[in-house]
Amino acid sequence: MGDIIVENLSKDYVLKTGFIKQLRGKAETVSAVNDVSLVINEGEVLGLVGESGCGKTTLGKMLVKIESASSGTIMIGDKNIVNIRRKELFDFRKDVQMIFQDPYDSLDPKMTVYDIVAEPLRYLKLAKNSEDMIEKIYEMLRLVELSPPEQYVNRYPHRLSGGQRQRVAIARALIVNPKFVVADEPVSMLDVSIRAGILNLLQKLNRENGISILLITHDLATARFLSHRIAVMYLGKIVELISSNKLMEMAVHPYTKLLLSSAPDLFADTSNRIEIKGEAASATAPPKGCRFSPRCNYAIASCFEKEPELTEIEKDHFVACNRVFERE
Amino acid sequence: MILEVKDLTVEFQIGKNFLTAVNNVNFGLGQQDSLGLVGESGCGKSTTGYALMNLLPKNGRISNGKVLINGVDIVTASDAEVRSIRWKEISMIFQNAMTALNPVQKIGDQIVNALLEHETISRSEAIDRASYFFEKVGISSSRLMQYPHEFSGGMKQRAVIALALICYPKILIADEPTTALDVVAQRQVIELLIDLQKELNLSMILISHDISAVAEACEKIAVMYGGEIMEIGPTRDVLIRNNHPYTNALVGSFPSLHKPISKLTQIPGSPPNLADMPSGCSFYPRCTYAQNICLHEKPPMRSVRFNKLCKCHFAEELDFNQ
Fold first, then answer.
1. Do the Cβ atoms of B271 and A191 come closer than 8 Å?
2. pLDDT greater than 90 at residue A189
3. Which of B28, B93, A58 is nearest to B101 (CA)?
4. Any idea what the Cα angle at residue A240 is, between residues A239 and A245, rounded to 5°?
5. How many structural domains compose chain A?
6. Which of A163, A225, A265 sits opposite B264 (nearest CB)?
7. Would you call A284 helix, strand, or coil by DSSP?
8. What is the pLDDT of residue A77?
């Protein structure tokens, strides 16, 4: 399938405002994702990190075509999937799938595990016959460690634990043998002791089956564990893109550093934390200039005027900060 | 001791059966002490919190044990005594603060009305007190006139903390106060709780599934599993120099930013089902160190290194280091 190349991607939502205001073109818009460019390499896990409302889920949904883009391009191979046609969408779904956050919501309570996992195969007509379908489903359930599969196929979601449900959701996404998966907070709703199992499973799927993954999470430690590179988002913009093994030592964006310093961690030194300034601004009225400037401890007058560009400061390390070269 | 919990056992009636949600829990809290209760969903940590307030749901009851608050047992206390203890001596911040506030009433009115319900003071005194506590939790008192939807998640949580403190309690129970919040807001709430604890001389119980958050706020920690305390003691000695296999596996299943990236420990199986608890040690079916004795005999609580108590047959032999 090749790399996924996102260029100048934006998503604006029109807020519900009065009809007259809309006619006059005065409707308020929220720019959930604003001019984002990034590449997800083939076989890579890219972590997308940020606080709620920063646009990370919207970006993920655009990559799987659940949301349409307002502008920009998403190139997969030589196809721009932003304006893909309905007929092509059918083939696209065989390559690109999504795992949702809440396995209590994302599975139909009236369908058995078998039917849930079979649905994509039926819809995309990927099974040769019923034996082939059964074989594929059993193999997939074994892969996600729901084994022996005979024990699970006839169960309804309410008879599964949270971890088992998320495994069913993963099985449903992977049954079509996709090359790229968007995983939106795949463990945040799960009990701690089962999270590790799901994370290890995703890691295995990436390493052994070469599936590219966009991992959306608010948890930097999870992102660092699973991803090759990490993109940090703030109010619709990517502010830093860095390889995971350099994250702790080399991250430079003040927002990335604030997140790293604030994350509760048993093994962290909490004596020297970065001071917190203000609250996250709203996406309806993003600050002028650098969007992080009102909360930034390093902001100077020009930061409130000029919006910084995402720039490569060393190989594979991108930062959007006006002061990145002046600061020590 | 301002709070003493002795052999606390809580049961829930489900149909004709009784499920033991909290099983023989013991701990004490001195003035300004802080204790974290951690564990996975269903381990009994929130139920313990409700039991301390004597606020169990209708189908729940304290079937055994004592909860002594300044020497008065809230389990056997009369209604009048309970009213003089609850909220005034011991107070609780409930889970889901985001939804705890009435959306169609100004936040200030909600706090003032709650206060007037519990104390015989004038309305203007109540308003002054509400303003005082709003400033204490870091919100300008001018915002008392606003509605919950005008507050961010972190601010709602702080408003709920102010509400819990309004009658000057000596013990504060906080149930998952950081769970629904973003990283930065989480840190602010934890730092606020630590400050308030010192300033108001509070004893605090912090209930959470997030061991890292508890580690930052509490000097002592109790790890719960299947309704029992498995390991209790000074926070870092429990979490880093573990003696219980469950504590060890739990800490090892978290990715950390400050450790090299390596494989995570996976705890086999799933959390216990209260309706079908194993005989012997409740962690036995998922434990990598289990032996025959664990299947048949419930391990007693025993003292181990670093002033800890641990409920495992092999606690002395298992000296883990994270």
1. yes
2. no
3. B93
4. 160
5. 1
6. A225
7. coil
8. 83
CA A281 to chain B, closest CA, distance in angstroms equals 10
Mean pLDDT, residues A94-106 taken together:
90
Question: Residue A231 belongs to a domain with what CATH number?
Answer: 3.40.50.300
**What is the structure's pLDDT at A328?**
53
The answer to whether the Cβ–Cβ distance between B182 and A218 falls below 8 Å is yes
In a domain, A29, yes or no: yes
Report residue B274: phi and psi, to 5°: -60, -25
**Rounded Cα–Cα distance for residues B234 and B224 (Å):** 15
Interval B216-220 mean pLDDT? 95
pLDDT at A205 over 70: yes
A260 touches chain B (CB under 8 A): yes
* Average pLDDT of the residues in B41-59: 94
Mutation target among B38, B176, B184, B248 for the A interface, most CBs of A within 10 A:
B184
Cβ atoms within 10 Å, residue B204: 22
Does some domain include residue A324? Answer: no
- Mutate: best of B41, B139, B247, B257, partner A, most A CBs <10 A: B257
Cβ of residue A83 closer than 8 Å to a chain B Cβ: no
What's the predicted TM-score (pTM) here?
A: 0.91
In A, residues 287-306, which contact B (CB 8 Å cutoff)? Answer: none
Evaluate whether residue A225 is within a structural domain: yes
* Inside any domain, residue A255: yes
* Percentage of chain A modeled with pLDDT above 70: 98
Q: What is the least distance, in Å, from the CA of A293 to any CA of chain B?
A: 16
* Structural domain for A32, as ranges: 4-319
